[in-house]
Queue: 2 jobs
Job 1
Amino acid sequence: MDVAIIGTGRVGTALARGLSAAGHRVVFGSRAARADSPVPGVPVHDHATAVAGAEVIVLAVPFASAPGLVRGLGDLGERVLVDATNPIGADTGGGTGAEVIAAAASGARVVKAFNTVGAEQMTNAAFPGGRAYALLAADDQRARDAVAGLAGDLGFEPVHLGDLSTAGHAEAAARLWIHLATASGYGRGFAIGLLRR
Ligand SMILES: NC(=O)c1ccc[n+]([C@@H]2O[C@H](COP(=O)([O-])OP(=O)(O)OC[C@H]3O[C@@H](n4cnc5c(N)ncnc54)[C@H](OP(=O)(O)O)[C@@H]3O)[C@@H](O)[C@H]2O)c1
């Protein structure tokens, strides 16, 4: 797929590395287009250039900047917009971060994904003990399935939460991962997945 990743930080770089290795055509959208890229073969364009040819747009920027950035992209024409942000400590008006972003996104089909594990695990989410889950919430099933495919390519097990109103579970799961990694002292070298019998 043609994927534009907005943000060249930790999450953007990890996803770009994994998705390009899986054969997707990936570009970065950045506040500063430049010739050097954190991921070889993934060009760094300005935001508008990056999203112009993208089927899937991934938001890998601080939550506080996301609604304004998305509004600035204009009409996204039903493209898939992946919200990988976490509204840590942000005012979301009592709703979820995903709903705030969806309200700002003109036309796009928003999917909450890739927010529940540390960035360094996103390039390859297949662990010796099993696959990390990728919790997905979306109103549009085809958009969700497209992102589930990308998640599977990164080694995740896609797990469907429900429509976008369920994105709060993914945002709570991120808070749990952060708590375990930091306050509980487990560090960043783990992920959470489903066990079955
Ligand atoms: N780090 C994690 O382990 C992790 C895991 C899951 C989810 N998340 C979430 O994913 C998002 C990105 O996290 P990150 O760790 O990748 O952050 P990061 O390393 O700080 O990178 C964020 C990138 O966003 C862009 N950016 C920064 N400020 C901006 C602004 N005011 N307006 C527009 N773009 C801006 C920058 O890219 P350019 O300079 O190229 O514009 C920056 O490199 C956050 O919402 C975070 O909560 C993080």
Job 2
Amino acid sequence: MKKIYPVCVIGGGSAGVMATHRTILNNDECLFFSGSLKDKKRSRALWVKKVENIPAHFNYQKGIEEPNAEVLKWINESPFAKNLQYKNNIGVHSIIKKDNLFEITDSKGEVYWAQYVIMCTGVMDVQPYIQGSMVPIFNYANAQTIDYCLLCDGHHVLGKKVAVIGHGNGAAWVSILLQERYNPTEFFILTNGEKPQFQEDTLKIMKLYNMKVMESPIKEILGEGKGKMLKGFVLENGETANVDISFVALGMIVYNELANELGAALDERGFVKADEAGLTSVPGLYVAGDLKANTKKQIYTAWDSAVNAANAINMKLRVERRAKFISP
Ligand SMILES: Cc1cc2nc3c(=O)[nH]c(=O)nc-3n(C[C@H](O)[C@H](O)[C@H](O)COP(=O)(O)OP(=O)(O)OC[C@H]3O[C@@H](n4cnc5c(N)ncnc54)[C@H](O)[C@@H]3O)c2cc1C
């Protein structure tokens, strides 16, 4: 006799913890994989520090990890604890669908079965390479003098000198939005050795705002205090961009391997297509958070999509149980 979980949640970031929380509060049993240490390192959740764009979320040192740990502790101390099968520091290695069930193999080789899956494996921002390495950027990213997310940290550029690192038209639009919202005192766009792919209409606006495009590769980041103070970028051609803050706008890597293994439909950027409830093209497979196509890639949108998925599954489970009750 194999144990069949009604719900399995994969991923322990914003979406995964909310999906688990909602599933448990709906009184459904939940098998929850938060991800191996390797999975966690490549997730966004681990790298988010201070969260300033969500009311009452200001005081955490690690804005996703700490509240998530509090939620899981609360569940474990609540009358609903019996519903949670928490696989801490364990990731999902592979997943297949067989006889209407998901067969899930974890990173330690254990096999589990579930009726429904909420997949929340997230995305990661593409990092710039400086002299062939991503390492020079890390201290600045940790200190948030180099940022990634407009909605989270765009307000940091108010009254500052800014550089956006990127070469696509998306990077140009990030720059235009930052300029129009916060009116920084100086604006550089560093393509870091790549040919700019800015479109004609975007170029016109960039010119209007006196944005300086520099194409030479970045040779060195200037700063102090382990990234706490950014002073600028030295380029290989000897030019310097003196700035106080920078944004990286190079796109995202989508962790869609497991969804792909199940044959879920993806959009052109690799995000998993789903309806409003998060149901993908694979029956029983739901997605939530950054992995889902057409979302804002924010903590609160991850929460909302996770609640939608857990509630949609709960409705299906109740209908199935009711049917058995009516005609056993
Ligand atoms: C630097 C930075 C700052 C940010 N600041 C803010 C902010 O201030 N406000 C805001 O609203 N948003 C912010 N964001 C965006 C926010 O981090 C994301 O929108 C949010 O984390 C998305 O949640 P998620 O659960 O989809 O993905 P994540 O939080 O990235 O979680 C993904 C999870 O999946 C797990 N995982 C991956 N693969 C597997 C596997 N095979 N098996 C099991 N588990 C797996 C990982 O371990 C991880 O737990 C920021 C992002 C960055 C990069």
